Amino acid sequence: MIQWWQILLLTLYSFYQICDELTIVSSAGSPVFAGFIAGLVMGDVQTGLLIGGGLQLMVLGVGTFGGASRIDATSGAVLATAFSVAQGIDPEIAITTIAVPVAALLVYTDIAGRFSTTFFAHRIDAAIERFDYEGIERNYLLGALPWGLSRALPVFLALWLGGGFVETLVQKIEEFKWLADGLVLAGRMLPGLGFAILLHYLPVKRNLHYLAAGFGLTAMLTVLYGNVSSLGGAVSSLVGVANEGLAADAAITFTNNFKGLSMIGISIIGILLAVLHYQNARRTVVAAPVSNVESGEIEDDEF
């Protein structure tokens, strides 16, 4: 059961997050931040981060260029986290059954928010002609109301009225094992879809060596951090056992020796450095005139 104060806090955050995204841009309007806030309010930060992180990966390559509307994954993260914690829904099922549909439906409220702000924009134009600076500031601030309500109102209504419906829907889905498994699989594929969209818009072919280097670094650091974590756990156990006066060797559980550090990852980094060196040398040769390449002299018109 979602408490009234939780509904109030999540509604206020939903109002603020879109205004932050349009003005301050402090990342408070991102899905992962929304999942964290919703999880904090609902008392389960881990679930909030799982849902918010999954939706963040899904919308990595999605933008609003030219004023176009996009799916509202932030509000979807708020509602999915709230209902997942309150109703005990699996986070992956919550993403596919709640977050994604809500994110798609709120495209319409986003359009309504964009249309309604034109009223205040025209009032600002009229105030500019009158040199009414107070009117300009007042209507600029009032323009935040339709934007905030375009998120806060749907979130409030869903949290206030949708608990029973969501619970019934999830129960029906879980009665059919194949459907629930399919939704879980779809939820796991969404981050991959987000990366695919992002790579589609990035100049990957021109910077393929950077992509390979990032993959190599990630693989290497995963091994390093995993072994350092195991080492820290072993040391803490060793200290605890020593304090209790027991045999010190009983606490030694760290057996990794970093052999998992792949030489392939190291070679990828080496290839990156070689490519960068080659490109820099090639630019130098192309930029310098033929007459001055051997002498190394730089003329005034070469700067």
From TrEMBL:
Keywords: Cell membrane, Membrane, Phosphotransferase system, Sugar transport, Transmembrane, Transmembrane helix, Transport. It is found in: Cell membrane. InterPro entries: GatZ_KbaZ_carbometab, PTS_IIC_man. The chain crosses the membrane at residues 140-162, 182-201, 208-228, 260-278. PROSITE patterns: PTS_EIIC_TYPE_4. It is a multi-pass membrane protein. It comes from the Bacteria. Coiled coil: none annotated. The keyword Metal-binding does not apply. This is PTS system mannose-specific IIC component.
